[in-house]
Design a protein that fits this description.
Blueprint: E1 3-4, E2 9-12, E3 16-22, E4 32-35, E5 39-44, E6 47-52, E7 63-67, E8 70-76, H1 93-203, H2 250-275, H3 284-296, H4 300-313, H5 318-330, H6 334-347, H7 356-372, H8 376-389, H9 394-408
Parallel strand pairs: 1-6
Antiparallel strand pairs: 2-3, 3-8, 4-5, 5-6, 7-8
Helix pairs in contact: 3-4, 3-5, 4-5, 5-6, 5-7, 6-7, 7-8, 8-9
Subcellular location: Cell projection, Neuron projection; Dynein axonemal particle; Nucleus
Protein name: Dynein axonemal assembly factor 4
Main location: other
């Protein structure tokens, strides 16, 4: 049989009712509160406080606080008035039981309504989240398609410009050849005409001739003596190519010769640079270890120089490009980091178990550089490629999930 609490206190205004119920030493965790718009109950065994309110209250606005050994109710009246008492007077047990049952039914109905409302709200939230995610994915897909289309148009324009340039150069070469051929033909024709004129003048001037009227011989016509024999020295312009100048393509030959000269200068420069190095500095493995030590001391620029020299000595070692990519990441040379990681992946072929760790590092470093450039879709692809190589790497898995959330717009754009 519970003990009824009677030493409670209450006050009111026209809109509010305040009730203080002492807990009599019972801990707050053992207090059970139950209320409707007409009924109020506080159960903290072995004590019980219940009341059928004098008038209805707004149960949704009303609140209860437990602390310092007391329960404080703040009840909002549905109608502004001053109550004559807190509870209805002269309520028999049957009416009290009926009020209790009605309160339980209302509480159950409210719980069902709240549950349905929460379910509806949850479905609406899930639908909104799905629609938002689909919208973000569509926008990202469109952005990527637009980038691809812009790149395709740019490449097409550059190709068309190159073709037009080649066509103009070809036309210019053909026009130059035609002009040279016409010039040669003109010179040949001119010489031929001169020979014809000379031959005709010789044939029309005999050494002797007679007059028709007198029959006497005219005086002899003197002709120039034959030319003495001699030699003419001809000097040809020195040429690298065996073809004649009129048959060659001068622009292409000059471009080829320039490339050969540049290549020779580069080789000579490299040889002169290597001559100044010590014996151990010509060893790529020694330079690789030196780069690692410089990286460990945070001297990233010096480490890059060491790897540059090592790659100059041997450009087939993928570890050199992989380590230099790490240095470029520290120096914020993001595009160079992407380039070195890609070069390392090209050299790490075929993909086998021995180079799996290096391939995973290359994907992670390239993916990090992409994300730093806010190219999250490309970065996610590299992280996923690294997870295919090492699926148990929890750090890479967590980073991949974070990048995916950034793409979906659920977290700030930062890694």
């Amino acid at each position: 049989m519970p003990l009824i609490v009677k030493d409670y206190s209450w006050t009111q205004t026209e809109t509010l009712v305040y009730i203080n119920v002492p807990l009599k030493g019972v801990k707050a965790g053992k207090v059970d509160l139950f209320s409707t718009d007409e009924y109020l109950k506080v159960n903290f065994p072995p004590f019980l406080f219940e009341v059928i309110l004098y008038a209805p209250i707004d149960d949704n606005k009303s609140v209860a606080k437990i602390g310092n050994g007391v329960v404080i109710f703040t009840l909002y009246k549905k109608e502004e008035s001053i109550w004559e008492s807190l509870a209805l007077m002269n309520v028999d047990k049957e009416t009290l039981q009926k009020k209790r049952e009605n309160a339980v039914l209302k509480a159950q109905e409210k719980a069902v309504t709240d549950t349905e409302a929460k379910a509806i709200k949850k479905r609406e939230n899930e639908k909104y989240a799905l629609e938002t995610m689909m919208k973000l994915e569509d926008e990202e897909r469109k952005r990527i398609e637009e980038m691809k289309e812009q790149e395709r148009r740019r490449a097409t324009e550059e190709l068309e410009q190159w073709k037009e340039k080649q066509r103009k150069e070809e036309e210019e070469k053909k026009a130059q050849q035609r002009r040279e051929i016409q010039k040669l033909e003109h010179e040949k024709k001119k010489k031929k005409d001169e020979m014809k004129t000379y031959s005709k003048s010789v044939s029309e001037c005999p050494r002797k001739r007679t007059t028709a009227k007198t029959g006497r011989k005219s005086e002899e016509i003197s002709l120039p003596a034959p030319r003495s024999a001699g030699s003419i020295k001809i000097q040809f312009t020195p040429r690298v190519f065996p073809t004649a100048l009129r048959e060659s393509r001068v622009a292409e030959e000059e471009a080829w010769l320039k490339k050969q000269a540049d290549a020779r200068r580069a080789v000579n420069a490299d040889v002169s640079e290597l001559k100044d190095l010590k014996e151990e500095e010509r060893n790529p493995d020694w330079l690789k270890e030196k780069g690692k030590k410089l990286f460990a001391t945070q001297n990233y620029l010096a480490a890059v120089n060491a790897y540059n020299l090592a790659i100059q000595l041997n450009h087939k070692l993928p570890i050199l490009y992989l380590n230099r990519a790490a240095c470029h990441l520290k120096l914020r040379n993001l595009h160079k980091a992407i380039e070195d990681s890609s070069k390392a992946l090209d050299l790490l072929t075929p993909p086998v178990a021995d180079n799996a760790d290096a391939r995973a590092k290359a994907h992670i470093r390239r993916g990090t550089a992409f994300c730093e450039l806010e190219l999250y879709a490309e970065g996610l692809q590299d992280y996923q490629a690294a997870l295919k190589i090492d699926p148990r790497n929890e750090t890479v898995n967590a980073d991949a999930e974070k990048i995916s959330k950034i793409i979906q717009g659920t977290v700030p754009d930062s890694l």
